[in-house]
Structure formats: C-alpha cells, structure tokens
Amino acid sequence: MKIRSTLAIGVAAATALVLTGCTGGTAGAGEDAGPVDTSGELSGTIQFQTWSLKNEKFTPYFEDLTAAFEKEHPEVTVDWIDQPGDGYQDKILSQANSGTLPDVLNLPPDIAFPLVKAGKLMDLDKANPALADKYNAGGWSAYSQFGDVEGTYGLPWYLGSDESWWNMEQLEPYGVSEEGLPTTTDTWLDLAKQVAADSNGEVKVVSSMPGLDTFVSAGIPIMDEDGTFVFNTPEAVEIVQKYADAYAAGAMPAEALTGSYGGNAEMYLQEKVAYATGGSGFAGDLRTKAPTLLENTVATPRPGIPPLFVQGINVSAESKNKAAALAFAEFVTNQENQIAFAELALGFAPGTAEGADEVISAVSKDLDPAQAKAMQVMFDALQEAEATPFQWTGGMTDYLNQQMALAIRGDASAEETLDKIVQYANDNRIDK
C-alpha cells in the first residue's frame, strides 16, 4: 500500500472548473454550516467510502470497524463501499455533481480541494472545534489551507514520510560518522562536496535534483497568504546553486538529470550513490535485494523539515445524516482505531496527535530490526513534518525537473530557473 500521488493537472483543473461552476467559485461547507451535535441518540443509514482498500488484508478491519460502531449505536447502519484505485477522482466528481457523494469518504487534500471550493465538504472546525488538538498538526494543517476558503475539511487518517538512507561503508573512510550526519539541507550539500573532493568523485551523496520538497525542508516559504507561489527567494537560489556546485564537483551522478533516471533508491541499491531518500519500507527492499548493503545502512530523518504525505477522512456537507456521519468519521480516526489500522498498514503512522509509539511497540517484534528502527525514525519525524501545498501538481513537477536540470548543469542561472518555475506554477494554479 502506498500514499496515492497527485493526479494529473488536467483532471484536477477540470474537476475544479466543473464543481465551482455550480457554486460561483467560492464556498464553505454550506450556508447552514455550524456545530454538529453527535451526543444524542444516532439513527439512520450512512455510506462510508474508501479508496482501493477492499482486499484480503483490510476487509476484515473495515467489517469489524463498522460492526463496532453499529454496536455502539444500534439504530445506525453503516454501508461500506470501496472504489478502485484508478479513476478515483473522476468517480468523486461524478458523485459530487450527481448529488450522490457518500456521507463519509477518504480524500487526500488535492482531491478534496475542488469539493471544498464547491461547498461539498463539512467544515470540521465549525462542526466540532475541539477536534484539532486530537490530530497530528501537519496533517490537520493539510486540510486547512484551501486558499480563500476558511475552515478544515478532513481528519488526518494515515500519514507517511521519507527519511534519509546513508551507506556508512562508503562514507566512513572520508571522516563521516553516524553521529555527525547532517541535519540541514546546507550541511548535507556541504558534506556532499567534501566527500566528492576527498574521494575524487567516487562517492556521491546527492542523488536527485532539488524538488519543491527541498525548499519546504529548508524552511523556505512556498506560498504567500494569497496563495501565490513565492519560493524564488535568495535562499532558494543559494540552494539550487549549491546543487549545481555539488554536481560540478562530482557529488551527483549525471543520470539524475536525465529522462532515464530510475530514482535515487534504485541507484542506492546499485551502490552508485551513498545517499537516498525513501519511506521506512525501504529497509525491506534492502533486505530482499541487497542484504549486505542493509548491514551498512543508517536511516535518519530527512535534513531540515521532513515531508508529509496525508490521507484523510472527510464528511459530506450535503449528508442527510450529519450527526451520524461526523460521529462515524471521528470513530474511524480516533486513536484506538487509527493504531489498529496502522498496525496493518506497515510503514504508515496514525494521523492522531499520539499513538505512534503504540504502533511501534505492537509491530516491532515481528519486523526486521532495521525496518523497526526506520519506522521509529519516521514516526518521530512526523511531529515536525509538513505537506507540500495541494496546489502543486504533477505538471508543475515535470516543468520543475526540466528547468532544474539546466540549472544544475550550469546551462541556466539558479535565479532565472526559479523565476521561470514560479511563474509557470502561478500561471497553472488549479485554484484560480
């Protein structure tokens, strides 16, 4: 199982246009949005929709989950449905436009956005102001930053992140110790140049071009209060130039700049690089494909602010049974049920403010020690992790990669490159 990636910009833009066309372009969670009282006796039927989770592994969990809620609320029936992975956003659009959106559903922030703009999702800040403190702060924020629409429109459900993987066998001959591994973007790039110089370019510590997450990790503001991309700052220019300098010093393989690039994890497995990024499950890949390499690998948090990948549970603003729907959404995402889900979805953390340690304790005895340690590293880092803005699309990533390759090779200046990328991103925003 993996965090679902952002869909193509064309689909997202079309979705936003069709839905906002029904509501004038801006909306909250309906004119009657306000507190929803779930303390009384609940009754009726609600529909709960997941995304590609009906299978041998997860079906028993959801059957038990719905049965437990129905036992607590005997007058409520939960109708669980699951949609296939492919075409999920198209299905959501169809449901929203036809008025058949399920009462409770699973949406990542980017797919939730057009529904938020169209007033199709419940504002959970208004429905229950006490909820925020129960969830991971970064996950909560990911459902609270929808441009000019105020409010929060999703409960963080399960979370993921990347971490750093270091080949100490390659690095230690050049004075690098586990205790001295870099914790910021700047010190990591400085280390890469130093190791490249000392090894005559044999050991490479930069294994991919800078992406938007690079600037998030460095603490550089990505968007301003108006939702405009603004990461073409002097600090970002300095980082891109440092990448270019590292490339010129032999600290980065040339294939990382080409269309045939297979990913930094693959290059790490081939020992072409001494550094890669990846989730905690990468330990399992190493154990299967390169067990000797795993013995010399150390996992640490990503330098700077860790990235955050978010899935959430959302409530339809048009539900005919708002009280039962909200109560069930809170039930699905409470600490006990999130812990149980994360124990099945190995490598993912619960979206609650607490509970990560309980997951580690429950699963570590059955895991390879390296994977258990990697999970602990990732779970600890999630307290500070931040998601990239939902407005950033796959098309923007493609354009960034094309332009960034020119800057890293020295064919364009870092400043000019960032200006072009930011201009392209602002010209192609899905929320305008």
TrEMBL record:
Keyword Membrane: yes
Annotated keywords: Cell membrane, Lipoprotein, Membrane, Palmitate, Signal
UniProt-listed Pfam families: SBP_bac_1
InterPro entries linked to this entry: Bact_solute-bd_prot1, SBP
Database matches in PROSITE patterns: PROKAR_LIPOPROTEIN
Membrane-traversing stretches: none
Domain of life per record: Bacteria
Record's signal peptide: 1-29
PANTHER family to which the protein is assigned, alphabetical: ARABINOSE-BINDING PROTEIN-RELATED, POLYGALACTURONAN_RHAMNOGALACTURONAN-BINDING PROTEIN YTCQ
Protein name: Extracellular solute-binding protein
